[in-house]
């Protein structure tokens, strides 16, 4: 909580977003089984973002239910949780200036039919129930999701060689 408050005031003081903003992005079982992990990673890397964590894992029902707890009253909640636990997923943590907002744009609309060509969902998806990825919808959600899926020691702080060619 304190970190969120400090980050907010740092944003206001400097008048710009932090280069260290993080977002949680997950390739769902349909994306993993279709062999799209590398294509999805490539989109984020080409934009200039830095992956600071990633792993292939078979999530438990409890983990998935907790992840999607905000949707528990929706009629699709049970089916969504069952689908996410059907196969391996590839959760990742990405870092960079405006990653949450831009990450959602890279992914496209939740409903692939509303996604623009050039977005991941616009290029690879047809049906809303098989939309390949999940992306945090806010910095606050990202922080919760990252803590849910990754231990602190799994997050790597590093600076890519091209960093100075992406940021001033």
TrEMBL record:
Domain called Nucleoside diphosphate kinase-like: residue spans: 20-157
The record's EC number reads: 2.7.4.6
Organismal lineage: Eukaryota, Metazoa, Echinodermata, Eleutherozoa, Asterozoa
- GO molecular-function terms, A-Z: ATP binding; nucleoside diphosphate kinase activity
Query: This chain belongs to which protein, by name?
Result: Nucleoside diphosphate kinase
The superkingdom of the source organism is Eukaryota
Cofactor section? Mg(2+)
Coiled coil start-end: none
Q: Keywords for this entry?
A: ATP-binding, Kinase, Nucleotide-binding, Transferase
